[in-house]
Amino acid sequence: MTDINVKKLKASNKQAGKKIGGTVCIFIILFIIGAFMLMPIYLAVIMSIKPVEELFVFPPKLYTLNPTLDNFRDMFDSLNNMWVPFSRYFFNSVFVTGAVTFFQCFFSAMAAFVLAKGKFPGNKLINSIIVVSLLYQSNVIYIMQYIIISELGMVNTYHALILPSIASPMSLFLLKQSISNTPDAMIEAAKVDGAGMFTICWKIVIPNQKPALMTVVIFAFQGAWNIQGGSLVYDEALKTLPTVVMQAASSGISRAGVAMAAAVFMLIPPILIFTLAQKNVIETMAHSGIKE
Q1: Nearest 5°: CA angle at 94, between 156 and 148?
Q2: Where do the DSSP E strands lie in 52-118?
Q3: By the 8 A CB rule, do 226 and 242 touch?
Q4: Residue pair 257/69 in contact by the 8 Å Cβ criterion
Q5: Rounded CA gap, 181 and 184, in Å?
Q6: Per-residue pLDDT tens for 92-142?
Q7: Is pLDDT at 28 greater than 70 in this prediction?
Q8: 213: nearest Cα among 140, 113, 146
Q9: 213 close to 175: Cβ distance less than 8 angstroms
Q10: What is the pLDDT of residue 102?
Q11: Torsions phi, psi of 262, nearest 5?
């Protein structure tokens, strides 16, 4: 073997070693970050299956010696013994979450289509306002929202929980950015064939925005599932599960296990929705695309 071939072999070995070392480092870093993110969920599950005598052991342990489901039984018993049965709280959360998710996706999709493909005076100004609104949380306008809801007579109704959450600048921004990538030639061809703007929106543009829609569904569901509305709803029959969980958590240390069990129960639907939506997003991104 000549000296040139030996040098090339050594160089290739060094490059291969660097690639392997870089891959290992990236894997270790991602593993640490993933473990750090999963730790709160793991602790919540462990705390929910710990008996009462293990909840207050110091120093706290990351495992349980005698796992039990008594906390979950106590949770359902205590919630069923309240003024309103547990099924009513669960229905309220499912109804509010489903309504917010559907209407947020519906109105965000229509508004995003108009802002992305419509040409009218003030389009750029509205887009700038939407971008600026991403900097502010809903707490900034909470007082104004409460005044408007009160003046409209919607306090202590489902409308007070649903309507303020329908308008989402983040959902509108994501869908607008996605629809902007749709070729104008496709829309012009549909217009030549006699399609109206409503038909173009729902039969041509929106069906090709599944990745963005699934992302909006994830964010909308997560936000709606955690709606409490403690200052907007006073009737016990209209309260949602997060409100009841907060009430259980504030009942004292004797209900700490029940509060953790309720928190784990609250984690299940968002995780399921995220898992299903994430799968659809990956498949759609891998097999779809529009090129002009």
Answers
A1: 30
A2: none
A3: yes
A4: no
A5: 9
A6: 888 999 999 999 999 988 888 888 887 878 878 888 888 887 777 666 777
A7: yes
A8: 113
A9: yes
A10: 92
A11: -65, -40
